[in-house]
Design goal:
The protein is α/β, with parallel strands linked by helices. It contains 19 helices and eleven strands.
Length: about 425
């Protein structure tokens, strides 16, 4: 008996040293993007360091947003850590639904977080979510197909050039489409892309009196341009394609150009996954000469819902996953090209990262996005690819359905815009704007 007792005491001491005395199992909701999948594969490092186990709930983007929103608004308590973004964080932080991250240790170096990311994830200077990675959007294109078309991509192209190049690169018989763009309905899918694009065309969601603007010529020009371009040079079934579907098409060599999240650059240039890894160039998102480019600003960030019973363990996970050390861990296992980008200033000063072909364009794109002044004409909202009001997600989800139906040929552009105007007006009036 005595010997067994002594052993268990010794075991307890060693567990305590490993952080195991207060070991928890935390549940994390995340999106099924490549960087998050990679993080799951490295979780053993976190468990080894802290003793905490992790259970993952990995969901497609639209489903993730629905699940975490429902959970936080109903205080469901399903998750200890949530993957959310720049849209939800300020709204939920202000409502007291998130645990503030204002007590991170000095060696975490919160001041190293890029100001654009920190600003978008804070309320009144208090951080409520830590960026796992940050992104803007840019053009990824096939250098060989551009050359075959007899064209040269400028570093800062116009939408007219992009449309010309897309049509010139299209060879439908060979299964090559000049451009792949988001068409899947969702406020963070087709509407993220189309809202950012509309900014470049001079459109806006609301005027300064919160009146919806879908009945204005700038939105008609935006949506007609997009639908015509996708019909001429896009892949079949484009209204079903979001980030992951277009990534797969590009990696298979089926897209001449893809305008999407800067974070995709490491996946399209990875020879293990991409058949065109050595033939990819990068350029800024297009403009129309009106002073705004169609590039967004976003961070997928980790936050702790207020009311979790495992706040300390959740904080330890966030510190681990968004630290400089985590970046080093990924670099060691996967190479510097595959570390999570766009969150920390020090990454862009790191000599190991400076020569990565997409590093400069990613940083330029992030720095050029302006959420407080996103449109040609003034607006009462903040946000490049969204309007940072609680009603936006629901309204944009519905508008996204109408625009996807226009892309699929189920209704005209005019019909889609008329429905968007009517439903947005109804929702905004009901909300008291």
């Amino acid at each position: 008996m005595f010997a067994r007792h002594a052993l268990s005491a010794a075991t307890a001491v060693s567990l305590l040293a490993a952080g195991g005395a207060s070991a928890e199992t935390i549940t994390i909701a995340t999106v099924n993007n490549g960087d998050m999948i990679r993080m799951q594969g490295l979780t053993d490092d976190f468990t080894e360091k802290t003793g905490h186990e992790v259970e993952w709930v990995t969901l497609e983007e639209n489903v993730l947003r629905q699940r975490v929103t429902t959970d936080i608004t109903t205080k469901g308590g399903q998750f200890d850590v949530m993957t959310i973004g720049m849209y939800e964080t300020p709204i939920w932080g202000k409502n007291g639904w998130l645990v503030p991250l204002d007590d991170l240790p000095a060696d975490y170096d919160a001041d190293d977080i890029l100001p654009a990311m920190r600003g978008g994830l804070s309320v009144d200077g208090t951080l409520y979510a830590a960026p796992f990675y940050g992104e803007s959007s840019m053009i990824m294109y096939r250098t060989d197909l551009m050359e075959q078309a007899g064209l040269e991509m400028p570093e800062a192209p116009t939408w007219d050039f992009v449309a010309e190049a897309a049509r010139a690169m299209t060879d439908k018989d060979a299964g090559i489409y000049g451009i792949c763009l988001r068409g899947k309905a969702g406020w963070g899918e087709n509407m993220a892309f189309l809202t950012a694009t509309a900014n470049a065309f001079g459109a806006r969601w609301f005027d300064e009196n919160w009146q919806p603007q879908f009945d204005q010529p700038e939105w008609k020009e935006t949506l007609e341009f997009y639908v015509n371009l996708m019909n001429d040079a896009g892949p079949p079934g484009a209204s079903n394609n979001g980030f992951n579907e277009n990534l797969s098409l590009f990696q298979q060599g089926k897209c001449g150009m893809w305008i999407d999240a800067t974070v995709a650059a490491s996946f399209v240039t990875n020879p293990e996954d991409s058949t065109v890894a050595d033939k990819v160039g990068f350029a800024l998102a297009p403009d129309t000469g009106k002073g705004k480019r169609g590039n967004w600003l976003w961070a997928w960030a980790l936050a702790i819902p207020a009311g979790t019973q495992k706040e300390d363990a959740a904080k330890e996970f966030i510190q681990w996953a968004t630290s400089k050390e985590y970046i080093e861990l990924v670099a060691e296992n996967e190479g510097w090209a595959n570390v999570p980008p766009g969150a920390r200033s020090s990454l862009y000063e790191n000599p190991n990262y400076k020569d990565i072909p997409f590093a400069k364009m990613t940083l330029e794109s992030i720095l050029s996005a302006d959420p407080t002044n996103p449109t040609v004409d003034p607006v009462p909202y903040v946000g490049v690819q969204f309007a940072a009001i609680p009603e936006f997600a629901g309204i944009a989800g519905q508008v996204g359905q109408e625009f996807a139906a226009a892309l699929a040929g189920q209704q005209s552009v005019d019909e889609a815009l008329a429905k968007a105007q009517a439903l947005t007006t109804d929702e905004m009036e009901a909300a008291g704007y």
